[in-house]
């Protein structure tokens, strides 16, 4: 039984998964022949010239995933969120506080969330346009191109993969 | 809300509803297949017969011999004890054993004690993080293995109980080993293989490669944990186990890469509990009874899930006060690719059945959602775990039969057998035990934090809690409730990897698992030994909506009332303070 469940079963899965993208070891993203990340694992983007990813309780440590586990009423936690709002406003002058989507000031469950909602990407457009000297329209168009709609157009939220978005951003010239 | 927002919410709501409907569409016909498997009738999976014969031959099992319920219980408990010793030894030695590419250390003995029990009892409470706490050998040889066998134990125990519903008087209840083996070869293994491959082709890793390293676009050096995860994630859901391969469980992008895998994992975990329900009706030729039980369970499920969906969608009132908008609901501890509705749905599904896997961090759920999650685990019978869900329902059923029998002045009986003092005593003890274990445990823990906050332990009681006030109390309440319900999810902010929590929850785990198995198997054994009284005008029928309502009332009264004081001190207090 042990052999069937702990040896044969995982080996069969691993064997067939060799045919999957990334050979069953995780799909990587390559730019100019260099691996810059894993397609599905979020990474830290804090610089103004990139679309920033969400806050992470583990600083995007892909070898130690976790959430903040802060309760909704915790006063220290609410102070942290307030500080994130303030920081965001400093880096994005002209943005109204009431337009910031909560996901940009809250940490994800895994600390490795690879995605943003389209709204959370679009609110960063003005800043990036200024730093890079690209028009707002071009950036909004880029976000639309990179947006993945709901599954089959029917189920679940729309998302933008931050790594893919930033790779595409660097490729704009 | 703009039209755009409402379109977004519609796709999320549709995703949740369709996920549930697909589960039912698959589960109802599969119930019949599983029923045939355990009645020993020809079925679609007969091609596994040679594998089973081979296993019986090595194990020295005489598959044709039926045993008494006592012999079956002894078999069940003995084999579990053997697994525990095996798992414990492997975990404390893993650092020096092969298949450890990341060089992870061995476990301390209290952590290994907790982990071995936790996975043996199908709870999967985890006081370690998969990336650094286990090796590939123990992930597969211990965790993966125990996930299969503990789920199969639950299914086999259910079949033992169901046998007693058949009309013939008998002191035999079938053969535990046969049911156990078939549960693996014909149900869990084939289903896991299908799910594992779907996961692998959507990006969950399945290879034996160790940690990888890359330089990110901003120039940070990042290490990425990987490993043979896909197969483990499949059985973790199908067996309602719930222990994650990675620390963040199914919130981790490699453990649950996209919305499709999220749906598959959701369907996978709810499926077998419902399948077993319909299999049961087929096995005893009482399909109507299955539907009534299903109705009661579904009502309970909807009562818990709807408020949770609404609460999470509305977001955190404390964050709203800070002035930002929450177009996608409460996002702390949640992933963008699942959104608040699917996360809320998951948090209830995983607590009413005994999975305990998470795709969002329950510690950061809204207070009302936390209440619903706790109630799901306290009842533990709305669908319930793989096999054991109905066993939990069974003692509510016995009590409901007894009470309604007294109310209408008829002899209480269940499927043609008189329910008498001895059975009621067992059922009541089982029902009351969980209150004692949970509240007793929380009382001790709270007493320690208050009176000995600086006790000279490796982790001081004052450092246990990650959040102050009511929420901190809820963290402790959740941990014991989860252990008792063999759920395994947690308010993970709790600093639980230390002697006190490893040991105390370990003890609760054992009682919380085996008493609710031993009780119903014993009751069933006692009932089956009685003379069968054919149904007559004087019989109280147990397959009517009225009786379903009665059972529902018994569940609410026993569970909700016995835990209400604790809920009032924790999540409810937090809810009202946030208003």
Overview of the molecule:
Chain A has six helices and five strands; from the N terminus they run H-E-E-H-E-H-H-H-E-E-H. With about 170 residues, chain A is mainly alpha-helical. Chain A folds into two domains: about 1-30, no CATH class; about 40-170, no CATH class. In chain A, strand 1 (about 30) and strand 2 form a beta hairpin. Chain A is globular and about 65 Å long. The model of chain A has no long low-confidence stretch (mean pLDDT about 85). The longest helix of chain B is centred in the N-terminal third of the chain and has 37 residues, at about 5-40. Chain B is mostly helical. Chain B folds into two domains: about 20-285, no CATH class; about 390-579, no CATH class. The interface between A and B is large, with 97 and 110 residues.
Short note summarizing the structure:
The complex is a heterodimer of chains A (173) and B (579). Chain A is mainly alpha-helical and 173 residues long.
Q: How is the secondary structure organized here?
A:
The complex is a heterodimer of chains A (about 170) and B (about 575).
Chain A: H1 2-17, E1 28-31, E2 34-38, H2 75-91, E3 115-116, H3 118-122, H4 125-132, H5 136-146, E4 147-148, E5 159-161, H6 162-171
Antiparallel strand pairs in A: 1-2, 3-5, 4-5
Chain B: H1 3-39, H2 49-59, H3 69-93, H4 109-120, H5 130-133, H6 136-163, H7 176-201, E1 212-215, E2 221-224, H8 230-238, H9 259-283, H10 287-314, H11 317-322, H12 339-352, H13 367-379, H14 388-408, E3 413-414, E4 417-418, H15 421-451, H16 469-484, H17 499-528, H18 545-578
Antiparallel strand pairs in B: 1-2, 3-4
């Amino acid at each position: 039984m042990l052999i069937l469940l702990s040896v044969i079963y995982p080996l069969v899965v691993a064997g067939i998964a060799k045919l999957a993208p990334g050979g069953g070891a995780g799909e990587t993203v390559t730019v100019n022949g260099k691996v810059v990340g894993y397609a599905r694992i979020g990474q830290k983007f804090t610089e103004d010239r990139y679309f920033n990813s969400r806050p992470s309780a583990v600083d995007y440590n892909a070898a130690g995933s976790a959430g903040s586990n802060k309760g909704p009423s915790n006063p220290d936690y609410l102070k942290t969120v307030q500080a994130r709002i303030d920081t965001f406003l400093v880096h994005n002058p002209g943005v109204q506080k009431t337009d910031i989507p909560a996901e940009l000031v809250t940490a994800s469950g895994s600390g490795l969330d690879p995605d943003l909602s389209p709204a959370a990407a679009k609110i960063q457009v003005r800043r990036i346009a200024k730093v890079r000297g690209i028009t707002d329209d071009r950036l909004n168009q880029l976000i639309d191109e990179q947006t993945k709609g709901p599954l089959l157009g029917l189920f679940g939220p729309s998302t933008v993969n931050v790594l893919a978005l930033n790779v595409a951003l660097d490729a704009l010239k | 809300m703009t039209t755009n927002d409402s379109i977004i919410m519609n796709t999320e709501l549709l995703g949740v509803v369709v996920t549930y409907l697909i589960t039912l569409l698959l589960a109802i016909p599969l119930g019949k297949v599983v029923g045939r498997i355990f009645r020993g009738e020809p079925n679609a999976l007969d091609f596994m017969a040679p594998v089973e014969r081979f296993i019986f031959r090595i194990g020295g099992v005489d598959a044709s011999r039926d045993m008494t319920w006592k012999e079956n219980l002894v078999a069940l408990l003995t084999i579990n004890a053997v697994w525990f010793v095996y798992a414990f030894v492997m975990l404390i030695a893993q650092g020096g054993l092969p298949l450890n590419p990341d060089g992870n250390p061995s476990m301390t003995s209290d952590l290994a004690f907790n982990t071995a029990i936790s996975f043996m009892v199908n709870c999967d409470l985890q006081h370690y993080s998969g990336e650094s706490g286990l090796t590939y050998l123990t992930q597969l040889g211990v965790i993966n293995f125990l996930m299969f066998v503990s789920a199969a134990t639950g299914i086999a125990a259910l079949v033992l109980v169901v046998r007693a519903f058949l009309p013939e008087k008998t002191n035999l209840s079938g053969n535990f080993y046969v049911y156990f083996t078939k549960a693996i070869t014909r149900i869990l293994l084939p289903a896991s293989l299908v799910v594992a491959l779907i996961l692998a082709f959507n990006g969950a890793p399945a290879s034996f490669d160790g940690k990888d390293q890359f330089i990110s676009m901003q120039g940070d050096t990042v290490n990425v944990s990987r490993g043979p995860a896909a197969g483990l994630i499949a059985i973790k859901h199908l067996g309602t186990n719930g222990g994650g391969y990675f620390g963040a469980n199914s919130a981790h992008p490699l453990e649950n890469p996209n919305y499709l895998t999220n749906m598959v994992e959701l369907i996978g975990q709810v499926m077998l509990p419902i399948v077993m329900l319909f299999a049961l009706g087929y096995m005893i030729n009482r399909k109507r009874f299955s539907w009534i039980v299903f109705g009661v369970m579904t009502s309970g499920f909807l009562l818990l899930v709807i408020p949770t969906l609404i609460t999470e969608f509305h977001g955190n009132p404390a964050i709203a006060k800070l002035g930002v908008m929450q177009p996608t609901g409460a996002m702390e501890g949640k992933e963008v690719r699942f959104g608040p509705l699917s996360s809320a749905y998951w948090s209830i599904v995983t607590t009413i059945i005994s999975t305990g896997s998470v795709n969002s961090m329950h510690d950061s759920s809204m207070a009302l959602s936390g209440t619903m999650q706790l109630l799901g685990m306290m009842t533990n019978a709305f669908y319930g775990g793989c096999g054991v869900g109905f066993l939990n329902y069974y003692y509510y059923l016995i009590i409901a039969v007894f009470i309604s029998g007294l109310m209408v002045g008829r002899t209480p009986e269940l499927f043609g057998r008189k329910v008498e003092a001895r059975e009621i005593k067992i059922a009541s003890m089982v029902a009351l035990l969980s209150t004692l274990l949970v509240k007793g445990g929380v009382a001790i823990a709270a007493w320690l934090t208050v009176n000995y906050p600086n006790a000279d332990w490796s982790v001081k009681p004052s450092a246990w809690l990650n959040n102050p006030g009511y929420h901190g109390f809820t963290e402790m309440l959740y941990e014991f409730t989860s252990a008792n319900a063999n759920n395994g999810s947690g308010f993970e902010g709790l600093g639980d990897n230390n002697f006190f929590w490893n040991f105390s929850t370990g003890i609760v785990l054992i009682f919380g698992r085996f008493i609710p198995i031993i009780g119903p198997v014993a009751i069933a054994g006692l009932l089956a030994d009685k003379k069968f009284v054919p149904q007559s005008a004087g019989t109280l029928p147990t397959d009517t909506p009225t009786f379903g309502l009665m059972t529902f009332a018994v569940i609410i009264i026993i569970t909700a009332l016995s835990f209400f004081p604790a809920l009032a001190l924790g999540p409810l207090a937090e809810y009202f303070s946030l208003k």
